[in-house]
Design a protein that fits this description.
3-stranded antiparallel sheet, 123 residues, 3 strands, alpha+beta
Length: 123
């Protein structure tokens, strides 16, 4: 019985393991040379900005960029100069309560939307 199994396995190995026919290798052709014209590399340096005014008060942009270094100690007092942009006053309803908290934005230049300091008056 064991001899039959060995012969059967050997027969299947010889019959079933025919190696596949080799295919001819295709010759690779080199792709055509293409010249690419790219635009010049842009200068990605952060532009310098004004940090202080003549009276040594901070600009809004400098305050916003360096808030972590300016306020390392408690009770730090800084002076900031800017232009008021977007003043919102208290709007009272029937029960004489404000529906909008009075606030305004302080900016370096009128119309500046990127560097704005929100100043809030909580009554």
């Amino acid at each position: 019985m064991a001899l039959r199994i060995v012969l059967l396995v050997a027969l299947l190995a010889l019959v079933g393991c025919n190696p596949p026919k080799r295919q001819e290798k295709k010759k690779r052709t080199k792709p055509p040379k293409v010249t690419v014209k790219l635009p010049p590399v842009q200068d990605l340096k952060v532009p310098e900005y004004q940090k202080y005014y003549a009276d040594q008060s901070l600009t809004v942009q400098h305050l916003m960029r360096s808030v972590a270094t300016l306020f390392r100690k408690e009770d730090t007092v800084v002076a900031v100069t800017g232009v008021i942009n977007g003043l919102k006053r208290c709007e009272k309803k029937d029960d004489n309560r404000c529906t909008t908290i009075p606030h305004f934005y302080l900016v370096d230049k009128p119309g500046d939307q990127r560097w704005r300091l929100l100043v809030v008056d909580i009554p």
